[in-house]
# Entry
Amino acid sequence: MFRFLLGRLAVLIPTFIGVSIIAFSFIRLLPGDPVALLSGERVMSPERHAQISHELGYDRPIVVQYFDYLWGVLQGDFGTSISTKEPVLGQFMQLFPATLELSLCAIIFAIVLGIPAGVFAAIKRGSVLDQIIMGTALIGFSMPIFWWGLLLIILFSGILQWTPVSGRISLMFFFPSVTGFMLVDSLLSGQDGAFTSAASHLILPTIVLGTIPLAVIARQTRSAMLEVLSEDYVRTARAKGLSAFRVVGIHALRNAMIPVITTIGLQVGVMLAGAILTESIFSWPGIGKWMVDSVFRRDYPVIQGGLLIIAGLIMLVNLIVDLLYGLINPRIRH
Amino acid sequence: MATPAAPSGEFTGSDPVDPSRRARFAEFWFYFSENRGAVVGLVFFVFLVLLAVFAPLIAPHGPNEQYRDAVLVPPFWQEGGRSAFLLGTDPVGRDILSRLIYGTRYSLFIGVIVTTISLIGGIVIGVVAGYFRGWVDTAIMRVMDIILAFPSLLLALVLVAVLGPGLTNAMIAIALVFQPHFVRLTRAAVMAEKNRDYVIAARVAGAKPLRLMFVTILPNCMAPLIVQATLSFSNAILDAAALGFLGMGAQPPTPEWGTMLAEAREFILRAWWVVTLPGLAILMTVLAINLMGDGLRDALDPKLKRS
# Structure
């Protein structure tokens, strides 16, 4: 297991260095003067330009600048936002719980609905139920989620008036952030109706962000189940006279879950990409909306830092998934 | 109900067309047409291609023609609808049906260009990596890992921010982001084929590396690439529409479906048709291509073939 971990790290570290080079060179690829871009000052005298250039360290060789940048990153310095003058990492930490809460709800939604749907479709292979489930899954898989979000807003917020249109909680409520998770914080605050408000704000974004993972998980579960159900040991279990529930629920499902767990791990990147669209539609104050807003504000240090943090996060999650997978399935370690 | 037997590989006739190629197509069609969804997808896709090609003949109005007296007219079946604007008009009085028809051109064009660029690029890089192995392979795969470390839409968004918003830059960004999937698939297929007898025979016969790579090996690696290409086609349409929706793709007044959605957003609670219809067009196009993709996978993947 230790060697397996070392092998993974040997691939991961050069990849992270590559990612940091991309994030570092990004500002230099932009048309225009990086000093002007970074300082946010459009018009400046040559003396002022030289002074800022020196402050930012731009008068040094590029390799020195890169290692300086990398050294800063390793110490948690991802630069400073032009528009708010706050450190990028601090902003990220402040906004990340919102995205994490939404993503967790969405993945739970996808798993709770997707795995049973896939199992039923596999058991009733070829039936009308199978066709309906797989047809729906393919529609979900093909869904432009930004449009799906707008449709849900028209129906549930516009016509039925059941859910709010945007934000994380009604402006009536105010309480200190303890965990950063609105569902937990609203419960802790003890205010009447706060939890209901937070939950009703969360429903539509959860459905929108969970739709594609739901479709992918249902399809993957079905094909994994079909493969396992034709195995000899399942036939043996059936021949022994075990109930259908035991055969499917205990014997088959456990083995079918191995590829499904990998699929769920791969959804992390999908979720973060989906968060960009979902958070923009619902004005959800998370890192997806933060990145889009920064692109529009041309807040390059935020784009640069955010890109690096998000990529690092995905790499970390992939490493954890790999390691878990190695624990569950010892064959993979070799 | 008896299922018809698969046509045998040795189908020969008096036809002058290369018999083996014809038989292979017949076999492919046999498996493809067994999947009803795939055939429906194909028919709808052909319909879209015809719409795109003959857009100026079919569309009742120009895509950017404004009718000042017809702002936010609902579709014809609703009260206040007019037969001149079957699917209604948008906030500046343009005919939605015509814009949707012209939009087909953009979406299919995006799909074709992005898939072609990432397919060709991915094949060349992947074949080189899989054929030469060693440090070339390691270097290429590390670069691909780096691209894959970013969420694709985020990387595309940032690339467009660097290159400047617009349809061309959006396509370049999406093609770049899709590249690694083709590289990985090609490399894996080439590595599997490289030491087969027919390749060794060709090498012994004196074939040079370039010929071995692209003439001998590549045609036998195409099946997974074709399936991935259909998937890229539909994803390219989705991502380009998403960039358009975020304001970073095609710019107004281009009748691109994602851009149309972005322009219509503020009217979402007042005029359902300006929001609903462009999204429906995206969904149906992507769905048709994905249905075809499932059929292609069934027809081309030998593991799933029932003989």
User: Anything to note?
Assistant: The radius of gyration of chain A is 24 Å. Chain A has 13 helices and no strands. The mean pLDDT of chain A is 85. Chain A touches chain B at residues 11, 14-16, 18-19, 22, 26, 29-31, 135, 138-139, 141-144, 146-148, 150-151, 153-154, 158, 269-270, 272-273, 276-277, 280, 291-292, 295-296, 298, 303, 307, 310-311, 314-315 (CB under 8 Å).
